Amino acid sequence: MKKLSVSIFGILVLCIFIRLPIHAQTPEWINYTSGSHVNAIAEEGNYLWVGGEGGLTRMNRYTGETTNYNSANSSLPGNRILSITIDKKNIKWIGTEGGLVRLDGSNWTVYNIDNSDLRHNLVHAVATDKDDITWIGAAGLSRFDGKDWTSYHSANSDLPDNNVRVIAIDKDDIKWIGTPRGLVRFDGTNWTVYNRDNSGLPHSDVLAIAIDNNNIKWIGTSTGLARFDGTNWTVYHSNNSGLHHNFVNEIAIDKDNIKWIGTIGGLNRFDGTGWTFYDERTSGLPHNDILAITADSDNVMWIGTSEGGLARYGGRNWTVHNTGNSALPANRVLAIAIDRNNIKWIGTDRGALARFDGRNWTMYNRANSGLPNNTVSSIAIDQDNRKWIGTLGGGLARFDGTEWTVYHTMNSGLPHSSVTSIAIDKENMMWIGTSGGGVASFDGTDWTVYNADNSGLPNNRIGAVAVDRNNIKWIGTYGGLARFDGRNWTVFDTGNSGLPFDIVWSIAIDEDDIMWIGTREGGLARFDGTGWTVFDRDNSDVPFVGVRAITIDQNDIKWIGTNAGLTRFDGTEWTVYNAGNSGLPGNFVLSIAIDKNDTKWIGSVYGLGIFNESGAISIDEETREDVERFALHQNYPNPFNPSTQVTYSLPEQAHVRLSVYNVLGQRVALLVDDIRSPGLHHATFIADGLASGLYICRLEAAGHSESRVMMYLR
User: Fold this and answer.
1) What is the DSSP letter of 437?
2) What is the per-residue pLDDT across 9-48, written as a single tens digit (0 to 9) for each?
3) In this predicted structure, what is the pLDDT of residue 689?
4) 563 close to 548: Cβ distance less than 8 angstroms
5) d(C-alpha 655, C-alpha 174), whole Å
6) Among 86, 53, 48, which Cα is nearest to 684's?
7) C-alpha 450: how far from its chain's center?
8) Alpha-carbon torsion, ordered 252, 287, 349, 565, to 10 deg
9) Are the C-beta atoms of residues 444 and 425 closer than 8 Å to each other?
10) pLDDT per position as a tens digit, 360-411
């Protein structure tokens, strides 16, 4: 064995965080994504291509090393990847929410409704046949031979529904198409539709199709699994077989012709006779909702889940991989707040709370902190730099950096456990909007609740709360906008004012104390205390009438988050950013915050986007140093069992050797020994078969060397 001389004397603390430098192809945009949601997996040699809600990842299936592509560093028209197939020429065809992408290794081509005959930009399914013709499910079925397009839909063919969810091609080059109204067989000329009424299909809602080694079709539906040999149907469900859940999302077939069936309740293995069930409780499966399954050329199973990321199962051991480019716990970012130290606090949907200082990520969830619920819907920071965190279902939490205090309906005056918005007034009093209990004020000791029964509040469901320079509270409800000066209430609605819609989602107040109000269906409203101006799709460049977030920067420019992108408005000109024309991770913008460097932090449903118009994103001084030098970052998780991810950055192309040694200096693993391009890289160390204890990871590249200590706990 190769040996390394090391000293671990004086190592007292092992850091449990990910350190990630900044690297982006488009300098004015950066994306941070989570690999928790995996929709698609395809194999290419030693690599897997993994698509989810956070972009596209190329991962070495032996070392775990990853390369991430997203809307900020590639030509991807958005971070939501729904399907992937690889043709005979190793060209990748990627179905996204923004169109069909062709990737030939170095060149990206995007096909959408504007530049091709693709019928819709939302591509659910893609497959290639024996002639390398591409078949696409997007508002019907499309055939593309590299030059010409042919479209089949319910108006010009026997396709029963234009929602094509899955396409499979059998040994005879016949296409099998899954729709909500049945299974379709298409031989290039004739169409045959199988549904619940005319066949043995247990339900017409077809979610998955796989074809086994004997050309038998296996069909997943919302009420069970069907086997079809061309003549006979056999149905498997939870009452007549070992199938544990009837909602079948995905099916894969391995080299031994064994069927792997992914459901919303776990993974099933079926060898034709016996069933084996895997779930979070009985195995290393990280989440029970299975969305993608692939059996690789070594017959190793790769399983994509909706919240647990990508799992590898070799028949004995399970390993979970993070295919995102950061430790962001989930891609749906509901809330962002920035404290006095320029640290970002990020609330996610079911992924809990993240703290990001520009280098290090720290996660807080129900398991490792006092956070009462993992869906964080709102965050505010008070004059003492304490964080107030609103959750959906768990109440309100206060975090001072060390101690957690939780307020809910049973131990405080909080009127509802779902907190939708928080504002802090000049007297450091909290104003907390809830989803059904009205609004509550809290001074640290006493609670006062205002609702539709005891005050002028028009509706108990609160969308937004803001405080103006005169300490007046403005409360957006599902019944209009309320103004409260501490004594008197004034209500503005569609019947008595220029408010365009009574459901108010967002409020911001500019330097002139003018109100900017985002509504669910009426667009954006400006209110100066007397007059109203409404901006919608008919009279402005607001891309969508639903305005979920508004933030105003230091130059009094308004930044507006909608369901169709981000908009900048300087009072005269409108600029729209979407996933197709910028590095915005997704068009559905949920939250916006602006830091001291005038950098915008944009929460979307497909990750966190960072944007600075100057083209120079300043996240952290130490981060910029990492971009300019070789760096080995602390592994995550640490301690680990049995796998951990190692991240390293290269300022230039170099031959990289990434090795792991035990405390005796013996090399136990060689993770990378190859040329790597500049940027951020990941590798996975799997410690199966090794003893518990300390291990040293060492990076060697272009004369630079650096080591990190890792702890394996079995």
Assistant:
1) S
2) 333 323 333 333 333 344 589 999 999 999 999 999 999 9
3) 83
4) yes
5) 46
6) 48
7) 36
8) -10
9) no
10) 899 999 999 999 999 999 999 999 999 999 999 999 999 999 999 999 999 9
- Six-digit token string for 220: 């997943």
Nearest to 334, CA basis, from 319, 346, 344, 317: 346
* Cα→Cα distances 31→62, 74, 106, 506, Å: 26, 11, 21, 24
Rounded to a whole number of angstroms, the CA Rg of the chain reads 27
pLDDT per position as a tens digit, 127-155: 999 999 999 999 999 999 999 999 999 99
Compute CA distances 520 → 501, 523, 546, whole Å.
7, 7, 4
Coil, strand or helix at 86: strand
List, for residues 614-663, the tens digit of each pLDDT value. Answer: 775 655 533 333 346 888 988 888 888 888 888 888 888 899 999 999 98
DSSP 114: T
Q: What are phi and psi of 255, to 5 degrees?
A: -65, -25
Residue 234: CB atoms within 10 A of its CB come to: 14
How many angstroms from the chain centroid is the CA of residue 225?
29
pTM: 0.84
Rounded distance between C-alpha atoms, residue 237 and residue 407, angstroms: 44
Q: What are phi and psi of 696, to 5 degrees?
A: -115, 125
Which amino acid, residue 3? K
pLDDT of residue 618: 58
| pLDDT, position 688 | 82
Report d(CA 432, CA 442) in Å as an integer: 8
Long-range contacts of residues 514-520, Cβ cutoff 8 Å, at least 24 apart: 515/466, 515/468, 515/474, 516/550, 516/552, 516/558, 517/476, 517/481, 517/550, 518/464, 518/546, 518/547, 518/548, 518/549, 518/550, 518/560, 519/545, 519/546, 519/547, 520/545, 520/546
- Distance between CA atoms of residues 521 and 547, nearest Å: 8
Tokens of 343: 């640290």
Q: Which residues pair with 294 in a beta bridge?
A: 302
Rounded Cα gap, residues 506 and 337, in angstroms: 15
The architecture in CATH of the region 623-712 reads Sandwich (2.60)
Classify domain 39-304 at the CATH topology level.
Answer: Methylamine Dehydrogenase; Chain H (2.130.10)
| Contact status, residue 66 vs residue 59, Cβ threshold 8 Å | yes
The residues spanned by each domain of the chain are: 39-304, 623-712
Least confident among 423-432, 581-590, 640-649:
640-649
Q: Which SS3 state, helix, strand or coil, does residue 627 take?
A: helix
Question: Using CA atoms, how far apart are residues 694 and 710, in angstroms rounded to an integer?
Answer: 6
Sign of CA dihedral 66, 67, 72, 76: negative
Q: How far is the first Cα of the chain from the last one, in angstroms, to the nearest whole number?
A: 23
Q: Of all helices (H) and strands (E), which one includes residue 253?
A: strand 248-253
Per-residue pLDDT averaged across 93-99, rounded? Answer: 97
The tokens describing 446, both together, are 């006493």
Q: Tell me the C-alpha distance between 714 and 705, whole Å.
A: 29
What is the residue type of 453? Answer: D
**Please, are residues 286 and 270 in contact by the beta-carbon 8 Å criterion?**
no
- Residue pair 508/466 in contact (Cβ under 8 Å)? The answer is yes
Number of helices followed by number of strands (H, E) in the chain: 1, 64
CA distances from residue 242 to 224, 245, 272, 282, 304 in whole angstroms, order as listed: 11, 9, 11, 15, 21
**Residues 481, 472 contacting (CB under 8 angstroms):** no
3-state secondary structure of 238: coil
Contact criterion met (CB below 8 Å) for 372 and 409? no
